[in-house]
Design a protein that fits this description.
It contains 16 helices and 14 strands. The protein is of the alpha/beta class. The model has no long low-confidence stretch (mean pLDDT about 95). The structure holds FE3-S4 cluster.
Length: about 400
């Protein structure tokens, strides 16, 4: 791989052990994908919590904690809450370790967004800018909705990129690598939030690592819809970039989205396929619900406000735990607006910094869980011995109030 003089110096260890590790990591990574060179990045997103630190060699970690990154570096989707650790069942020992590691992150001048949706907390890379980040749902959002450019990066590769300010130039960083190759004709309207989740889950399984191009999605599609669609595409499949003709920035026309080439395949998705996607996410167990999780990827203010609206004047059932996850920046806005107070008064909890799958924690004795998120439904049934109901936020809040899936209030 071609390296500039400065990159060569890093590679040879002239900038110290940490830069040497980082540059050697990026070169091996790039060579595995036939990258001919590196490209500079404008910002990076890293996962920073007590659970993930062990993935970097100890001697490198020591140097890392004493340096500043080459580019603005945001913390993305940690495995620990920023408060409410007792409620989530985190041990005091682990919480104290987390407090220490947050202090270190501050001294390194990380921007503590601490969310899987860092674009809701101020990380806004512009179209065409090269970045490096972890977290499959935010990778899909940055690539597709913002038109920024990132690989499906890993925990160590993001650190290597943050340290050096570079990433290997291949795949989604190139014009060619961003072209669509699978045409998805959506033939169902109108689509609600829950439909976008199910649509993504259905298509992701077919797409795998492809770049799907959607037609039939209205221009009025909202940021929350795309947040759920991308997260679901990256859950049943490995989709890191999608286009929506007439909506996303690199797909003004069908021709532009495919770079003038023909799609290798075409699929049509109607109401039946969307229902199938939804059914795949339910295990079909007992209807008595113990735990309702909302906010995957972390909720926007608008989503938080909808939950408050549904809970206004109501109480969460005494046998149900309701956890709602939002970035701390969003939670703060919710505090100012009085939204979080409504949720709290009803018996729910608004949490930040992680989620049940991130922290590997659910309320004790949970046998049946409900969520409005395809990604959470998918992973929670893999991590915990639970039955799952997947549905709209209205269905989930209803289950939190009645203690039953499908029961009317
Ligand atoms: Fe975020 Fe957890 Fe979902 S980290 S995307 S809320 S699985």
């Amino acid at each position: 791989m071609y390296l500039t003089k400065e990159e060569e110096k890093m590679y040879r260890g002239e900038y110290g052990l940490t830069h040497e590790w980082a540059m050697k990591f990026l070169v091996s990574y790039g060579e595995a994908f036939n990258a001919e060179r590196l490209t500079r990045i404008s910002s990076a997103g890293v996962s920073w919590s007590v659970w993930t630190m062990g993935k970097i060699p100890e001697e490198v970690y020591e140097g890392l904690t004493r340096m500043k990154m080459a580019v603005p570096t945001y913390t993305v989707a940690g495995g620990m809450p920023d408060a409410h650790w007792k409620e989530m069942g985190i041990s005091k020992e682990d919480w104290e370790k987390q407090v220490e590691s947050t202090k270190t992150a501050k001294s390194m001048e990380f921007i503590l967004t601490e969310t899987c949706a860092p674009y809701l907390a101020g990380w806004i890379p512009i179209k065409g800018s090269h970045i490096a980040t972890v977290e499959s749902s935010c990778i899909a959002y940055f690539n597709s909705v913002f038109g920024a450019r990132t690989h499906r990066d890993s925990f160590p590769s993001c650190f290597a990129s943050a340290i050096t300010g570079r990433t290997p130039y291949f795949g989604f960083h190139t014009e060619r690598g961003r072209m669509g190759n699978l045409l998805v004709k959506v033939e169902a309207e109108p689509l609600e939030q829950v439909d976008y989740e199910a649509l993504g889950y259905y298509v992701g399984e077919i797409a795998g690592l492809d770049v799907p191009v959607f037609t039939g999605i209205p221009r009025e599609v909202e940021a929350e819809h795309l947040k759920g669609l991308g997260a679901a595409l990256a859950t049943s499949g490995g989709v890191g970039l999608y286009h929506i003709v007439g909506v996303t920035p690199e797909a003004p026309t069908l021709k532009a989205a495919f770079g003038g080439e023909k799609p290798k395949d075409t699929i049509s998705v109607g109401k039946e396929e969307i229902k199938h996607g939804r059914d795949l996410l339910c295990t079909g167990g007992p209807e008595k619900v113990d735990f309702v999780m909302l906010g995957c990827p972390h909720y926007t203010v608008k989503q938080l406000a909808r939950v408050a609206e549904l809970l206004q004047g109501k109480k969460v059932h005494r046998d149900v735990t309701l956890w709602v996850f939002a970035p701390s920046a969003v939670r703060h806005t919710g505090d100012v607006m009085g939204i979080t107070d409504v949720i709290k008064k009803a018996g729910g909890l608004v949490l930040s910094g992680t989620c049940p799958c991130g922290a590997r924690k659910i309320p004790p004795n949970t046998k049946v869980m409900a969520t409005d998120a395809a990604k959470q439904a998918h992973y929670a049934t893999a991590y915990f011995p639970v039955d799952m109901w997947f549905g709209s936020v209205e269905e989930c809040v209803n289950a939190a109030i009645t203690g039953q899936w499908g029961d009317r209030q």
